[in-house]
Amino acid sequence: MKQGKLIIFSAPSGAGKTTIVKHLLQKFPNLNFSISATTRESRGDEQNEKDYYFISKEDFLHRVARQEFVEFEEVYNGTFYGTLRSEIERIWNEGKHVIFDIDVEGGLRLKRKYEDFALAIFVQPPSLKVLKERLSGRGTDSPGKLQERFIKAEKELEYAEKFDVILKNNDLTTACSEAEELIGNFIKA
User: Fold this and answer.
1) How many CA atoms lie within 13 Å of 52's alpha carbon, on the beta-carbon side?
2) By three-state DSSP, how is residue 149 classified?
């Protein structure tokens, strides 16, 4: 197995990281998206083995015990997310680099584990107010879940300085263009 590189996009929910990652996947054919495993239910038109590996909490914890994850965490109370070792190996075996759309703490764990082979990018929203508006505008979460996301977002914004790069998403077109340049340079290095 040839080791490729890892490109990690982290941010509070609603900051725009998923949109930026989807843009980069269209621009760079040598990138492949790392599908995370989660114990949460699918939302909207999300598909198993495309958007996430939707697995039971019991199965998730069994995989943790067998050390099948390179990183995992209980992101929200009772809801686990993680990166399967086999997912990274699958992408590297295809001769591609791995791109992640991952929570802040998981992103930092990956960076520590893979060091120079990883570029950790924190997507910073224009403000907490704008972030709250984006999350509310999605219409996918209950008021209780939205409040939980707001509290988590405030904490996650404090981690920005621990990343290799802070990518400000004040304007999506500009942020995507800056992300293209970052990724292009990192892959070539």
Assistant:
1) 20
2) helix
**Cβ atoms < 10 Å from Cβ of 22:** 13
Lookup: tokens for 64: 């943790």
Find the farthest-apart pair of alpha carbons in the chain and give their distance in angstroms, rounded: 46
Residue 137 CA to residue 141 CA, distance in Å, equals 10
Which homologous superfamily does the CATH classification assign to the domain defined by 6-188? P-loop containing nucleotide triphosphate hydrolases (3.40.50.300)
Altogether, the residues listed in the chain come to a count of 189
Containing 84, the helix (H) or strand (E) segment is: strand 79-84
Per DSSP, the residues of 2-65 read ----EEEEE-STTSSHHHHHHHHHHH-TTEEEPPEEESSPP-TT--BTTTEEE--HHHHHHHHH
Residue pair 104/152 in contact by the 8 Å Cβ criterion: no
Residue-wise pLDDT tens digits, 23-69: 999 999 999 999 999 999 998 889 999 989 999 999 999 999 999 99
Dihedral angle sign, alpha carbons of residues 123, 127, 131, 133: negative
Q: Is the entire prediction scored with pTM above 0.85?
A: yes
